TrEMBL record:
Keywords on record: Hydrolase
Protein name: Phosphatase
Top-level taxonomic group: Bacteria
Pfam families assigned to the protein according to its UniProt record, in alphabetical order: HAD (PF12710)
Originating organism: Dyella japonica DSM 16301
Keyword Flavoprotein listed: no
GO MF: phosphatase activity
InterPro entries xrefs: HAD-like_sf (IPR036412), HAD_hydro_PyrdxlP_Pase-like (IPR006384), HAD_sf (IPR023214)
């Protein structure tokens, strides 16, 4: 088996907006900003931050569902998924966000059957209260979903691994995969760390690049250390 497996971030990569940020803006009780500052300053990990923040959400199920129905995904993501299926390349969504939200949003596009590793959002008591658990956390890691553990596990399958992502939650996984399609802050991380990558603006680019990834030509052009400026997206 010499194919590729794709690990794909959700918030900011598949979705346009960050789901938790948008929920906190709308339904967060006071205190979530302090947790955000503690996380940004490195005083707490994302798991502690989000567990606390989700506990501060004040919303009904209907309010949550209505809000989620207003969030959009990258317009080319459904075509990208169709292409991966046509080319028999497994894609797994690996997210430090909320499983319920991801299923709900992807469901509008008939894509809620994609394999998913994410934090688990569940209603709590009393009503309007919510609770977060992290079934994909790992020992010694402060993230909710340990993407580095998921990437390490994918590497053991004998296939090569592509990561598609945009932010800080993707940094540790980027160090453990064979190639990265990078957006936003992940671009600079890959460049600085010498990780083979191509910068993308969205799934339209990813769709163009996928055949060149699978035929090996992208990887051949991008051995670590080569300047990323040599890349052209057709
Ligand atoms: Mg992201
Ligand atoms: Zn981790």
């Amino acid at each position: 088996m010499t194919g590729w497996t794709i690990l794909c971030d959700f918030d900011g990569t598949i979705s346009v907006e960050d789901v938790i940020d948008s929920l906190l803006d709308r339904f967060g009780r006071p205190g979530w900003e302090t947790l955000e500052q503690d996380w940004r300053a490195g005083r707490i990990g994302s798991r502690e931050c989000m567990t606390g923040q989700v506990g501060l959400l004040d919303m009904t199920q209907d309010e949550l569902d209505k809000h989620l129905s207003s969030l959009w995904i990258d317009h080319a993501f459904p075509a990208f998924v169709a292409k991966t299926r046509e080319l028999s390349t497994p894609l797994r969504v690996v997210s430090d966000g909320l499983d319920y939200a991801i299923h709900k949003i992807l469901g509008r596009y008939g894509l809620d059957d994609l394999p998913l590793a994410a934090n688990h959002l569940a209603p709590a008591t009393p009503p309007r209260q919510w609770q977060l658990t992290s079934p994909f956390q790992a020992d010694g890691c402060r993230s909710g979903t340990c993407k580095c553990a998921v990437a390490a596990q994918a590497a053991k399958t004998g296939t090569k691994t592509l990561l598609i992502g945009d932010g800080a939650s993707d940094f540790c996984a980027a160090d453990r995969v064979d190639f990265v399609f990078a957006k936003h802050r992940l671009i600079e991380h890959c460049r600085a760390a010498g990780i083979p990558y191509v910068p993308i603006t969205g799934f339209e680019d990813a769709l163009e690049l996928l055949p060149r990834l699978l035929d090996g030509s992208l990887l051949a052009e991008h051995t670590p250390g080569e300047p990323a400026l040599a890349v052209t997206i057709p």
